[in-house]
Amino acid sequence: MLEHLSKQTFLEKVFNYEKNNEWKFEGELPCIIDFYADWCGPCKMVAPILEELSKEYAGKINIYKVDTEEEQELAGAFGIRSIPSMLFCPKNGQPQMAVGALPKDTLKRAIEDILLKA
User: Fold this and answer.
1) Distance between CA 85 and CA 79 in Å, rounded?
2) Contact 61, 44 (CB under 8 A)
3) Is 89 in the active site?
4) E-assigned strands of 1-118?
5) What confidence tens digit (pLDDT) does each residue in 18-69 have?
6) Which of 32, 33, 40, 111 is catalytic?
7) Phi, psi for 45 (deg, rounded to 5)
8) Of 31, 43, 80, 87, catalytic
9) Is the backbone peptide bond immediately before 84 cis, with ω within 30 degrees of 0?
């Protein structure tokens, strides 16, 4: 199940950038954050793929969505210049950003390589 994050839930579930200067992941499971907008065509193409992946990897990763129109401060905090942009957040280690509408096999590879490798 995809979950939409507000700034408040982002601070609680992903990274509290108001409290920490260094990256400190707050979540229980590794996650992907999809920075998108309702008017964005490529974002609409990626949405059903992310929905499928959230079911395939249920209990292993979380997939969150951040509406860049509603959450401009969050988008700014991560320097989002183009959408869709996806932030891959492993449980340990640094997050990695991917820009553009990625195909499902590329997303699966990133999940396996970035999020699920311990």
Assistant:
1) 10
2) no
3) no
4) 3-4, 31-36, 62-67, 85-89, 96-99
5) 999 899 999 999 999 999 999 999 999 999 999 999 999 999 999 999 999 9
6) 40
7) -70, -35
8) 43
9) yes
CA distances from 40 to 9, 67, 84, 89, 102 (A): 23, 11, 8, 23, 14
Question: Full-prediction pTM beyond 0.70?
Answer: yes
Structure tokens, 47: 């949405």
**Active-site annotation holds for 43:** yes
Q: Distance of CA 51 to CAs 22, 28, 47, 63, Å?
A: 30, 20, 6, 8
Domain boundaries, the chain: 3-18+27-115
Regarding the domain with residue range 3-18+27-115, which homologous superfamily does it belong to in the CATH classification?
Glutaredoxin (3.40.30.10)
Distance CA 27, CA 109 (A): 21
State both tokens at 9: 């839930």
Structure tokens that stand for 33 in this block:
């954050």
